[in-house]
UniProtKB/TrEMBL annotation:
HAMAP family: Thymidylate_kinase. It comes from the Eukaryota. It comes from Lyophyllum shimeji. The gene is CDC8. This is Thymidylate kinase. Pathway: Pyrimidine metabolism; dTTP biosynthesis.
Length: 218
């Protein structure tokens, strides 16, 4: 059986360096001649993504339940593309994924299980890397506060929900979840991220799992 591509998700608080680290990781994969594709959630180019973009820039208001479902729908828009890329042997790197959706919505007071439900059976990543940084350190970085959720207290709550998600993922056997100290120089962070990704990116044997379900596709 030929190996499929690896599904890698980079998560973290706002301004934790996700965009920088996903770009560095993509470059590293390409240098190693590993076929790779970078995706970002929300994907603000789709019809749904444009609604989300307007909301995040505080240009429009939506009910918390409604915006959560739009974020989930935005991921489902690309779910089949992710599966096709992986089956073709391409490693997929995602800047944010379903875990962010749960963390941010639950931090606003929506029930945790309700937040998780719309993403059940999405493709499960083989590895989730959480770029850990304190809300205080994130606030000190450039551009902080430009979008709706970039408030220190909100980010503190989000970090705690991410911690719960990470523990659940680690205990479920659905891929791996690792914490990386993102408060360091970006090159040091990139080396640690690569250390977690390198072997996995050479190809994965076995089927792709689904988030929060025991069903494994044939």
């Amino acid at each position: 059986m030929s190996k499929r591509g690896a599904f890698i998700v980079i998560e973290g608080l706002d301004r934790s360096g996700k965009s920088t680290q996903t770009a560095l990781l993509l470059s590293r994969l390409e240098s190693a001649r590993i076929p790779a594709k970078l995706l970002k959630f929300p994907d603000r180019t789709t019809a749904i993504g444009k609604m989300i973009d307007s909301y995040l820039k505080s240009q429009s208001d939506l009910d918390d339940h409604a915006i959560h479902l739009l974020f989930s729908a935005n991921r489902w828009e690309l779910a089949s593309s992710i599966e096709h890329l992986l089956a073709a042997g391409t490693t997929v790197v995602c800047d944010r994924y379903a875990f962010s959706g749960i963390a941010f919505s639950a931090s606003k007071g929506l029930p945790y299980e309700w937040c998780r439900a719309p993403d059940v059976s999405l493709p499960a990543p083989d590895l989730a890397v959480f770029l850990d940084i304190t809300p205080e350190a994130a606030k000190a970085r450039g551009g902080y506060g430009e979008e709706r959720y970039e408030k220190e207290e909100m980010q503190r709550r989000v970090r705690e929900v991410f911690r719960r998600i990470g523990e659940e993922i680690k205990g479920s056997g659905l891929g791996a979840w690792v914490w990386v100290d993102a408060g360091r120089e970006k090159g040091v962070v990139a080396e640690e991220v690569w250390g977690h990704v390198e072997l996995l990116a050479r190809g994965v044997e076995g089927p792709l799992c689904r988030l929060w379900t025991d069903e494994i596709p044939a």
